[in-house]
Amino acid sequence: MTLLEVAVATVIIGILLAVGFSNLRGWQENERATAAVRQLADLYRFAQLEAVRTGRVHLVFLNVNGTGDVLGNPLEDNNGDWVPALVLDDGTPGSAGQNCEIDAGEPTSVLPRTDGLAWGVTNAGTNKAPGDATAIAVSSSSTFATPAGAAATWVAFMPDGRPLGFDAACSMGQLGSGNGAAYVTNGERDYAVVLNPLGGVRVHVWDRQAGAWQG
Fold this sequence. Notes:
alpha+beta, 12 strands
C-alpha cells in the first residue's frame, strides 16, 4: 500500500468514526430525553397513588417558563435549585392548609432537571397529542386549564384518584377538568405526556416521517 493509499484510508476511517460518534451521541441524547419524559409521566402516577393512599390532595405543578404555584412561589428542590415539575402534598380536602400553595413544611417530591430538554415542541407544530382534548394550544407547552378555561400549569389529584383542574383561588373543577398534556422537546424529538380525564397517563412521541403522534 502506497503512502497515498494509507492517507486516503485514514481519511475515510476518520469520516466513518465521526459519523458513528455523531449518531451515537444523538441516540444517547434521545434516550436521555425519553427517560426524563417517562419520569414526568411517573410523577403524575405517583401523585395520584399518594392522593389515594393518604386521603390528601396532591398537586402537580409544571415549571413552564418560570411558573410556580398559584401565587408564583418557585418550584425548587430541598437545595433551593429550580426543578421542572413538583408534586405537593396539599393536605386533607377542605382543611386550612389545603390552599393550593406551597406552604412551609408541606411534603414535596420533584422531577430533577435534564440537560437538553425544554418545554414546547420543535416539529409537531400545533398538532395536539391523542387524548389532549382541552382548548389550550400546544404553544403553551402545558394544556391544562382552570375550571373557567384559562391556561394553567397545574392539576390536582383528589383522594379518590380523580384529576381536577383548579384556579388561583384553589376552586376545583368538575370531573373531567383534569385533562391536559405537557409538551417537551430536545430539539430532535417532541414528546407529549397526556393525562386523561380519569387519571390515566400516556406518553406520545412525534413521528416526523408520518407527521403524527405515536404511542
